[in-house]
Amino acid sequence: MRKWFLVSLAIIALAASGCSQVINPIKGGAVLDWVDFIKLNGNSYRGLYSNVLKDPDDVTDQIVGEVQFKVADVVSNPKYKTKDGDAAFLAKGTKLYQVEGFRPEEVIAAEDESQIGGYRLYAGEEFFQTFGHHYKDVPKDRVEQIQLYVQGEIRPFRILMDEEVSQFISILENGEDKSDFTPDRTNGDPIYYKMVFFTDGPLGYAYNLNDDGKNVFFSPWYTRVVDDEIRKFLEPADLHLEWRNNE
Q1: CB-side exposure of 74: number of CA atoms within 13 Å?
Q2: Of 23-27, 122-126, 169-173, 206-210, which gets the smallest average pLDDT?
Q3: How far is residue 112's CA from residue 98's CA, in Å, rounded to a whole number?
Q4: 165-206: per-residue pLDDT in tens?
Q5: What is the mean pLDDT of the chain?
Q6: Which of 64, 72, 149, 177 could form a disulfide with 194 if both were Cys (CB 3.0 to 4.6 A apart)?
Q7: What's the CA gap between 142 and 243, in Å, rounded?
Q8: SS3 assignment, position 199
Q9: pTM score, two decimals?
Q10: Which CA distances in Å does 31 have to 1, 27, 173?
């Protein structure tokens, strides 16, 4: 799991706590794993790692706040209580923007060129709890477009429309769930892809898709192995990877 999900209950409680005095933030000797959070204007936000903006232009010029203190790699005292202006991983001075169609307490954005769409999104606690993040929450009948990426890339190598969308989702839906699945690493790590589902709503749903050479699989809950037919949608990525590796 990603680092930001490996969090003790104590740290989650601290991230959600209100303003209070900082107690020796640099000391303490503990190694803390922080969730990707922001505290701003009395609200707590968490990173939306399974969602991207359908239209990056929805990020407005309106600045709703600015990061004052980055706690990761600095704070090691488990008694530290987060306060307004604190962020887990964003650098001091990072500006936070309002997103069109959302109230500031629902969704805000920070510029990040390494992310699809150019922004990292954060959701307020109430919105985070009520908005569906998992593959099962994607309204499959409303998917208009699927963008496929090589993991780490910010430009899609393929965009699926119309009948291809239906075929791709059908393959995913008809896969076999295997709670004890282990990827084959005979030839090294799997190839990692990102698949992003866009509906008529402002947020797309982003999930990993992996190919270990024997099986293509993803994790809607347990690991699901899908039919090899799905590789016909990944072929442009194979060519891209071969070209990149030969540079």
Answers
A1: 16
A2: 23-27
A3: 15
A4: 999 999 999 999 999 999 999 989 999 999 999 999 999 999
A5: 86
A6: 149
A7: 35
A8: coil
A9: 0.82
A10: 17, 11, 40
**At 236, is the pLDDT very low, low, confident or very high (cuts 50, 70, 90)?**
low
Residue type, 136: K
DSSP label at residue 128:
H
Q: From the CB of residue 130, how many other CB atoms can be counted at a distance below 10 Å?
A: 9
DSSP assignment of 219-235: -SSSEEEE-GGGGGGTH
Q: Which two three-digit tokens encode residue 113?
A: 């060129």
Flag whether pLDDT at 117 surpasses 70.
yes
Whether residue 141 contacts residue 188, with contact meaning beta carbons closer than 8 Å, is answered with no
Q: How many CA atoms lie within 13 A of 121 on its CB side?
A: 27
8 A C-beta contact, residue 117 and residue 107: no
3-state secondary structure of 12: helix
d(CA 112, CA 204): 17
Q: Which of 9-13, 119-123, 171-175 has the lowest mean pLDDT?
A: 9-13
Check: CB of residue 224 under 8 Å from CB of residue 177: yes
User: What is the rounded CA–CA span in Å between residue 15 and residue 85?
Assistant: 12
Amino acid at 47: G
